[in-house]
Amino acid sequence: MADSVPELGQVAGGGFQVFSVDAECIKQRVDEVLQWVDSLEHKLKEVEEFYSSVGVSNSGSIGKDTEKGRHVVGIRKIQQEAARREAVAAKRMQDLMRQFGTIFRQITQHKCAWPFMHPVNVEGLGLHDYFEVIDKPMDFSTIKNQMEAKDGTGYKHVLQIYADMRLVFENAMNYNEETSDVYSMAKKLLEKFEEKWAHFLPKVQEEEKIREEEDKQAATEALLAKEASHIKTTRELGNEICHANDELEKLMRKVVERCRKITIEEKRNIGLALLKLSPDDLQKVLGIVAQADPSFQPRAEEVSIEMDILDEPTLWRLKFFVKDALDNAMKKKKEEETKTGALNGTQKKEVSNKRNANNKLAERKTKRSRV
């Protein structure tokens, strides 16, 4: 069991030793169990966050897939399958870009393509305002270099090439006058390019559809694998929580064995203190009694707690719980009184300031009337 705490009395290596259960030993053991419980709470929070992010509807669909016997693969296999799909998709895209190369050559070999073959010579042509009009210069030689790049810096998708091809013509048409030859050549080439792209586009759309389906499949498999992991974690958490409860119960009984018995007077005081508890705290008291006595009915219309028949561990739990509950209630009451007192003090100060202001105003009016 992951993150388990050794049994009471167990030493490294699995053996056991006999030792006196003194206060320091019990305190140390309680600290260990509390740290253990903290780790369990952290795991539980992770599981809760997962199901909160997935949502009820998705979680239900996952459960149905599991019930149907759908194969749930592990995280490592999911990662391997995702890498394989990505490599296959990259190869298909490389094939598409190679096919697009035919269109690229047809456009660049056209008689109107020569003004766009290389970057615009801004300084040589004296185009001082070029970069004020054009944000991203583009030309065919730059596109060709990107298409042929082998160092991983080239195009990853054919739509990137398409966008840069259009940018070449759009830049020319944005900077040059409509009556210019460059504008006319750019417009003519753009029309031819769009015509050829229209015939090529179905292949691109088919690839996009395949990728979308693959992404959905990958996301579903990853979700299934993650839920399978959380189901296992939840099962382990249930076992560990039971184990932690057993450890705390064991420690509590060890403590009680070393304690004196609850006196008749203390039992009476516990009973009287119950009358001062809030409804929520009373429900917790009934829960404590129910844990000790399975036949006790905490939800009955009339509930009677017989102090004389309760065992010592339960009496001590009630004693400590009642004391803490009343102390917390008193502390909360004092905080509210302090807050109310501070508020009243502020209000009194505001009234005093307002009264002083009114007095000063009255004095000014009196002086003016005398004048």
Radius of gyration over all CA atoms, rounded: 40 Å
Q: Tell me the β content.
A: under 5%
What spatial form do the alpha-carbon principal axes imply? elongated
Helix content: over 70%
Structural class: mainly alpha
- In DSSP terms (H or I, runs of 4 or more residues), the helix count works out at 10
> What's the N-to-C terminus distance?
95 Å
Say how many strands there are: 0
Query: How are helices and strands ordered from N to C?
Result: HHHHHHHHHH
Average pLDDT rating? 79
- Major sheet details: none
- Regions with pLDDT < 50 over 5+ consecutive residues? 4-21, 56-73, 365-371
Briefly summarize what is shown.
This is Bromodomain. The protein has 371 residues and is mostly helical. The protein contains 10 helices and no strands.
What does this structure look like?
- 73% of the residues lie in helices and 0% in strands.
- By secondary structure, it is an all-alpha fold.
- The protein is elongated.
- InterPro entries: Bromodomain, GTE1, NET_dom.
- This is Bromodomain.
- Pfam families: BET, Bromodomain.
Question: How are the secondary structure elements laid out?
Answer:
Layout: H1 23-54, H2 56-67, H3 75-108, H4 130-133, H5 140-148, H6 158-175, H7 181-258, H8 264-274, H9 279-292, H10 312-370
Domain Bromo: 108-183
Protein name: Bromodomain
Domain NET: 252-333
Which keywords apply here?
disordered C terminus; 371 residues; 10 helices; mainly alpha
